[in-house]
Amino acid sequence: MLVAVVAAGLAGCASVYNLPGNVPLGAALADNSSAREIPPYEDDLLLALSFSGGGTRAAAFSFGVLEELDRVRSSAAGTKTLLDRVDFVSGVSGGSVTAAYFGLKRRAALADFRERFLLRNAEEGLKTRISLGNIGR
């Protein structure tokens, strides 16, 4: 009897519901409905940025990196700065805020990111205490 219960319990762990949900790459490319075109690169430099976490300090540091990349001229690209040549950007935690903003606005992010995020109290609208006034909202 005990063996039957253990066998039934182990059989419950091996179910078809744990199959991966991703489509194999070969099937996706053969279908061509989910394949995206890769943009052509203009030069031989591939510049990727990855910003670390750490809250507002990480966001400020990554913003400073973007500002400095905007000051450095790239000799191979003429008048372009290194900021213009960024191909990929990623980040976690505070660094992801800067990465996302730069990903959306590119160079225009330098103009207002400091005022829109760094100088604001980003936590002012968060309710961090439980009280009868904010339960159920």
Overall description:
With 137 residues, the chain is mainly alpha-helical. Helices cover 42% and strands 8% of the residues. It has 5 helices and 2 strands. The chain has helices at 2-13, 25-31, 56-71, 93-105, 109-118; strands at residues 47-51, 86-91. The protein has a two-stranded parallel ribbon with strand order 1-2. The protein is flat and about 80 Å long.
Task: Quickly describe the structure.
With 137 residues, this protein is mainly α. Helix content is 42%, strand content 8%.
Helices and strands in order, then pairings?
Layout: H1 2-13, H2 25-31, E1 47-51, H3 56-71, E2 86-91, H4 93-105, H5 109-118
Low-confidence stretches: none
Give the terminus-to-terminus CA distance: 51 Å
Radius of gyration using CA atoms only: 24 Å
Tell me roughly what share of residues is in helical segments. 40-55%
Report the sheet with the most strands, covering strand number, pairing sense and barrel closure.
Answer: 2 strands, parallel
Tell me the strand order in the biggest sheet: 1-2
General shape = flat
What's the number of helices? 5
How are helices and strands ordered from N to C?
Answer: HHEHEHH
Instruction: Count every beta strand, where a strand is a DSSP E run of 2 or more residues.
Output: 2
Structural class: mainly alpha
Roughly what fraction of the amino acids lie in strands?
5-15%
Q: If you average the pLDDT, what whole number results?
A: 78
